[in-house]
């Protein structure tokens, strides 16, 4: 376990490194960044050696991600928007581990500065954020239970952050589907119908037709307004 002095040093070093380069520039050569890149490469190799997805997530949550907390805090505090593959990778890992608030902390910064994901992710940053959050929510709904992990407010923020981004309609449809299910979970049937209908407009195979019919039927039965048709 790191001492308070080590944690402080790591945070300050990350802040200084992040402040050394502006948007469009590289952090390559900044010692704190290079050290974390080397650690990231080691951690990726470790994850690659694990076959179980469940085990990979457990390792990220309990062992790997805590080691990046101080670097992330410093990078966000001092950053001027230079590309940072450590930050964007940790963002995805935080979603995997269920730390949605922590992932959004990075997403806000990364999107504001038009950062990209490392090549192995093969997706634009905004697409990945929208899809990762949507899939996390939809997976939780599929499993059932009262706690879906991702909150309605977090999904709404993801939608707002990625609203102007160009992405495949199927991904945005998935996000609206998740927003619709979350709205229904919160008792807001009109909002749920709006999102589910929008999801269907974007992707006819998104799998919400029965949900829309069910909600419309329930709304009519209770004297509610089913909205547009």
UniProtKB/TrEMBL annotation:
Domain of life, source organism: Bacteria
A Pfam family this chain is assigned to: Phage_term_smal
InterPro entries: Phage_P2_GpM (IPR010270)
Molecular function, one GO term: endonuclease activity
Protein name: Terminase
């Amino acid at each position: 376990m790191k001492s308070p002095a080590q944690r402080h040093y790591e945070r300050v070093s990350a802040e200084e490194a992040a402040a050394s380069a502006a948007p469009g520039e590289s952090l390559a050569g900044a010692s704190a960044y290079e050290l974390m890149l080397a650690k990231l490469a080691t951690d990726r190799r470790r994850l690659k050696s694990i076959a179980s997805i469940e085990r990979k997530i457990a390792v990220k949550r309990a062992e790997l991600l805590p080691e990046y907390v101080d670097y992330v805090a410093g990078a966000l505090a001092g950053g001027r928007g230079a590309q940072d593959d450590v930050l964007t990778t940790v963002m995805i890992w935080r979603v995997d581990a269920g730390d949605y608030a922590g992932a959004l902390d990075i997403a806000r910064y990364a999107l504001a500065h038009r950062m990209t994901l490392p090549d192995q992710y093969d997706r634009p940053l905004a697409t990945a954020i929208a899809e990762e959050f949507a899939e996390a929510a939809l997976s939780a709904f599929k499993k059932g239970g009262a706690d879906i992990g991702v909150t309605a407010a977090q999904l709404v923020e993801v939608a707002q952050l990625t609203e102007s981004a160009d992405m495949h309609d199927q991904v945005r449809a998935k996000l609206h589907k998740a927003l619709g299910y979350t709205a229904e979970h919160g008792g807001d049937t009109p909002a749920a119908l709006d999102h589910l209908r929008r999801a269907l407009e974007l992707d006819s195979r998104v799998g919400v037709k029965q949900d829309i019919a069910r909600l419309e039927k329930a709304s009519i039965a209770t004297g509610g307004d089913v909205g547009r048709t």
